[in-house]
Amino acid sequence: MEEVGVSSRVVFSTRGVTKVYAMGEMEIHALRGVDLDLYAGELSVMLGASGSGKSTLLNILGGLDSATDGRVMYGDQNLVRASDRVLTAFRRDHVGFVFQFYNLISSLTARENVSIVTEISRNPMTPEEALAMVGLEERMDHFPSQLSGGEQQRVAIARAIAKRPDVLLCDEPTGALDSKTGVRVLEALEHVNRELGTTTVVITHNAVIGEMAERVIQLSDGQVASVHVNQRRAAPGELHW
């Protein structure tokens, strides 16, 4: 059992964030005025059905996409007005990404996949340290084809955290995994959040995963529908779906 302890320091602050995509003569409103604060060191889960805007919001927070309007503050920097050069540096130096699909290079071992990031980072862990943090000490020299889906996702997490990012953004990290394997991945994310103090956002359509978060942010129709603080956080091993 773990009690809630959300930091008071705001890492991300969004106000009035909208995102409109032009589809021919039609406009698709993916985000409709999102106001949200994310705090240092917290593990939050963003819930919502497909089309609710959660992936769009995550991509904007990570500098992979830009808002149509509004303000996205990372510390004292407004990402909405940032140049491509500034956004590239932001992604490189501050953000780690974990996606539903692992995007590992099949011809490289787990250790080599992680070293791709450590070789270009300012203050990285060693690949060995990062892989040990996700419980893959014994699998470092295996190729992706020799690893299970859950192990491949944990390599992807190791790759994301090896540069010691301030923020870890995870888009459906268990979406391609069964419940038991997904729990192992969530345990790795929870361990990283606790040990490194990395602000961690997990987006998912699976409401059960929200039980392990400090805060659960519900998105619906491109807006924040509710924010719930868990008085008791479940350990990943307690989750079943």
From TrEMBL:
Family, similarity comment: Belongs to the ABC transporter superfamily. Macrolide exporter (TC 3.A.1.122) family.
Domain ABC transporter, chain residue ranges per copy: 12-239
Keywords carried by this UniProt record: ATP-binding, Nucleotide-binding, Transport
Record-linked SUPFAM superfamilies: P-loop containing nucleoside triphosphate hydrolases
Organism field: Halospina denitrificans
GO molecular function, one term: ATP binding
Name of the protein in question: Putative ABC transport system ATP-binding protein
UniProt signal peptide: none
